[in-house]
Design brief:
This protein has 300 residues and is mainly alpha-helical. It contains 13 helices and no strands. It has helices spanning 5-12, 14-29, 35-56, 62-67, 69-90, 96-118, 124-142, 156-178, 184-203, 217-245, 247-252, 257-269, 275-296. Helix 3 runs antiparallel to helix 9 and helix 7 packs antiparallel against helix 13. The longest helix has 29 residues, at 217-245. The mean pLDDT is 80.
Length: 300
Amino acid sequence: MVKNRAGIYLLMLLAPLFWGGAFGSTKHVLAELPPLTVAAVRFLLAGLLMSGWACWRGEWQWRTIRESWFVLLMLAVFGIFGYNALFNIGMQYTSAINGALVIVINPVTTSLVAVLFFGERWSWRQGIGAALSMSGVLVVITRGDLAVLRALSLNQGDLLLLGAVLLWTTYAILSKLVMRKVSPLLSTAVSMLIGALLLLVASLPEQGWSRLPGVSLQVMLELVYLAVGATFIAFLIFNIGVREIGASKASAYINLMPVSAVLIAVLFYGEPVTLVHGVGMICVMSGVLLTTRAAATGGK
């Protein structure tokens, strides 16, 4: 457990960094493997790693799992299986801009549910921070042309993505509840293993597993990155954040995901960065700082 609050906020920055790097990796992997197969491989490897880590640290407790089995099952169904299935399938029918908007909606819905139904405090800092970070994300994903938003229209993919938002919100809130009794490491390990098994079964009709041995070395390395960095490390950090600073504050860091994705694209893929990107990043960073500052000052 991280004791220092400043250390928690710095640690939380790693989660969107890893998740942001997953965009480019996933895009390349999907060129050789179908979406549910990719998700199943990713979470099966990550679940095994997380379970091994839990055993090594002495946190794998069968009694705790039996006592909280239903909530752990719900974490797997909503946050691992449901969210990733709806998101990956939905992206096949909608645009990249619509998909990126999911990232904007997630922290807002999580904060509202946490405040309305679970007693988390709300402050003017959180409100301004949420609005500022959302504005920054919108600037980044629309490249400064907010007129793009008026051209959006809902299709079946968008509806699936909205369903994914609701599932992630449920996952974040359930994580807060279950970690009152179960450690972040154990809850994440169990939910990942169960979710991976559900994804594995769902992926069988894709017939992608027979293609797995023949993938390129780059795709194999990217699968390892998705499992270790973007899943094993990032999910553990996120769950620690939910327990230590609350679901709404932890979810605010999701807004940094597209910003980190832009930075990684510039550093590793040579994509140009513009003034619009800079403005958006400043807005997002300022919004996250305001949101977390509210936690440090007791929500005032």
